[in-house]
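yo, RNA polymerase sigma factor SigM is done. seq:
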Amino acid sequence: MASTSGKTSETSPNRLDVQHWYRRIYAFCQARLISDSDSEDAVQETFARAIKHFPELRTHDAVGGWLRRIAHNVCVDMIRRQQIRRTDPVDVHALPHEAPPDPAADRDQREHLMRLIRALPQSQREIILLYYYESMTYDQIAAWLGIARSTVCDRLNRARQTLKSELTTTGGAP
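structure:
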């Protein structure tokens, strides 16, 4: 809903609200790149490109998707340049699991799950990210990645099976 000043909750019609998007884009980049410094560089490059091209954006209603696409392209460019492995984020809180009563054990378990997710093939990590972290539907993921909906379902199911198997083997322990 637009405010009386003409600003939407996401952006002003004339400027990109970097503060609003910074944390989400940082998390998006951080999950794809190995080091925090690479993630910071990617975020800076993302916003530099976005600010440069913001006046050309036809509609400001889809700023989030537009920024994610720029961030994705920046990360891919960095990966190609530096030949580093990609990893995709997952909001581990969104995955079904029982939280242990010990916060330190919970942190260890989440870190273990993230290591397992990083070990997944890139195509499966991408689906996990978009489904759990970005809360996209199967159809949205298919459109975003340019693949069939059935491929999205298949990759997500394989990723879940792999994670379940690994967690069962280790008893969920790191």
